[in-house]
Amino acid sequence: MSEDPKLSMSIDIENLTKTYDNFAALDDVSLSIKSGEFLSLLGSSGSGKTTLLMALAGFVRPDAGSIRFGGREMIFEPPHKRDVGMMFQSYALFPHMNVFQNVAYPLKLRGYSRADIRQRVEQALATVELDHLIERGITEMSGGQRQRIALARAIVFEPKILLMDEPLSALDKRLRETMQLELRRLHERLGMTVVYVTHDQREALTMSDRIAVMSKGRIRQVDTPINLYERPSNRFVAEFVGESSCLPVTLQDGQVQFQGRPLRASSATAGLKNPSLVVRPEKLQFVTADASDCNLLHGHVTDVIFQGESQLVQIDLGEGMAVAIRRPTRSSASDRLPTRGEAVVLGLHLQDTLVVGDEQ
Ligand code: ADP
Ligand code: MG
Fold first, then answer.
1. pLDDT digits (tens, 9 = 90+) for 167-225
2. Which residue's CA lies nearest to atom 13 of ligand 1?
3. pTM for the full predicted model
4. CATH number belonging to domain 5-230
5. Fewer CB within 10 Å, N or C, the chain?
């Protein structure tokens, strides 16, 4: 992460609200993004990601709240004075212009000289490895190339803040994964502050320094990918990020109970609303009933699903509850998987025994 003020700028969002009719697209959003940070806004469709990004860009006027870039209030600044680069899902390239003209466009708007424009466009295209196609028409370009051109156009005037709204979602899986790594490398090299919108949690985990999980116009947790995955602070985040089962537990005198048995939790449980145990498939192990270094879950195998590199075994715990356990696919005979109908005991290590509540 770069924190060079020449390259990047901090973003401070405070109590931002935007309502359409009676509907809050943004509901009291506060978020501080460090200079040079790659921060993703992650949430399902309609959670307010685009509205927040557009408020940063200046295309949506919030009802209330503050947005500061490098400490300077931006709320009343028009988009062209905010000097942010933008890249969207639809490339929004001009089809009647060639590659050069498309990338040169933001520089022309800003009144750069011809020589300066030429040099900067070449450099931006070299950054995305398309400098050899500078005179080509847009319609001759593939989806991936168009997306690179859109990126070159977004960074050509060296903005300190780059806003990206689902920029890769129109690409097929393989190209999307390649571009994810390219964007990350580009960010490392150029060092600007990036706010990246995605509904794809894997993409967010792959790319980001930190992730803000959104739903219903609110931020539910902001954290590093690892913390978000390992230590979700509420049930919504636990279910949204990664695979998990959330099993209802009860609290009695500070003691967690699951299916009438005590459970040793690694997280604070006092005052949780509708507490549930978060179980991720890779955290479970098959154990014997006398295992003492972990919490035990008892159930029956309902299905064994082959998924290539791993196998997912589904377990019915009774009382309408189920979990899945993931095991790597190996040929070793000692690593035998149970079969459908078999009674099994699952172990969950104490440090992986996480109890969360609904958001207050
Ligand atoms: P996301 O990008 O996370 O899918 P959006 O920010 O686009 O979500 O939208 C959040 C909510 O605000 C949605 O319910 C959407 O219908 C609503 N919304 C967004 N823009 C407008 C608008 N211009 N007029 C009315 N409702 C809007
Ligand atoms: Mg959107």
1. 988 888 888 898 899 899 999 999 999 999 999 999 999 999 999 999 999 999 999 99
2. 46
3. 0.91
4. 3.40.50.300
5. C
